[in-house]
Amino acid sequence: MLAASAALIAQFPGLFAPVTAAGTIAVMPAESDDARVAARETGRAIEQTWSTLRPISLDSEAAPSDCRVKPYAAAARIDADDVPYADGVLVEVTFDLVDCAGWEVDRWTEQRLLPTSAPRAGVVHALRTLARHATTDADVWAHLQRERAARLFSVGLALLPGDPPTYLYAFYKTSDGKMRVAVRPGGPAWEAGVRDGDVLVRLDGKFWWEYGTFQTQRRAYDGLPHTLGLERGGRTLEVRLGQPLELP
């Protein structure tokens, strides 16, 4: 198993999963019967196909938070449903692979169309089959991205030396026309004071719309120490980003 450097742990104390969490993946179902069926099958499939991983079951998705006391290095968020249409019942399972802080790594979705008259037992069988297929998709990713997967499952972060400097945050526009911030707990933007769901008002002193949506979002990924004017809970605050994360 890989280990995080003492210097990075000291700089970003909530960034990495504890040593005791290495090799453990949490399987978290969404709040539906279909998701719980798919999650149970996902756990069994991981046990059978991933000899280096130990799955643990959590009743529901854990809220994103830093990784200091997490019992897992990564998590599989499992969502599933069956939706009736005129030509049949569409059964779908999604395997969302996230790191120890809930930051998305990759996602796989499998679908199957059943006859309109399919009984519940047929839907359950399809959910289990699709959950296994989605787990296989994730296993293929882990083989193709061997180094990144090894780091994710060891220390809880899917970043490699040589990746661009990052603050582990992103901007996204919501239906109300506001630009909001998604931030990885424990990362550099989080340590600077940014929180998930903050409303971005200004970027380096200018209203974000003066740049335009695309240019504003591009600036989130450039690895430079911007100053963010934010709104949170009816109050305004200014956050100056410090040093980005760059693995040695």
Task: Write up what this structure looks like.
- With 248 residues, the chain is α+β, with helices and mostly antiparallel strands.
- The protein folds into two domains: 150 residues, Rossmann fold (3-Layer(aba) Sandwich); 72 residues, Roll (Pdz3 Domain).
- Helix content is 29%, strand content 30%.
- The protein is built from six helices and eleven strands.
- Strands 6, 7, 8, 9, 10 and 11 form a six-stranded antiparallel β-sheet that branches.
- Helix 2 crosses helix 3 and helix 3 packs across helix 4.
- The longest helix is centred in the middle third of the chain and has 25 residues.
- It is globular.
- The protein starts with 5 loop residues before the first helix and ends in an 8-residue tail after the last strand.
SSE arrangement:
Layout: H1 6-11, E1 24-29, H2 33-49, E2 54-57, E3 74-85, E4 88-99, E5 104-114, H3 120-144, H4 146-155, E6 169-173, E7 179-183, H5 188-192, E8 199-203, E9 206-207, H6 213-220, E10 227-232, E11 235-240
Parallel strand pairs: 1-2, 1-3
Antiparallel strand pairs: 3-4, 4-5, 6-7, 7-8, 8-9, 8-10, 10-11
Helix pairs in contact: 2-3, 3-4
Q: Unreliable stretches, pLDDT < 50, 5 or more residues?
A: none
- Strand coverage percent: 25-35%
CATH topology of the largest domain: Rossmann fold
Going by helix content, strand content and strand pairing, the class is: alpha+beta
Number of E strands: 11
Order of helices and strands: HEHEEEEHHEEHEEHEE
Helix content bin: 25-40%
Coarse shape? globular
The N- to C-terminal Cα distance equals 17 Å
Number of helices: 6
**Count of discrete domains:** 2
- Tell me about the biggest sheet? 6 strands, antiparallel
CATH top level of the largest domain?
A: Alpha Beta
Q: Specify Rg, calculated over alpha carbons.
A: 20 Å
CATH architectural category of the largest domain? 3-Layer(aba) Sandwich
Task: Estimate the mean pLDDT confidence.
Answer: 93
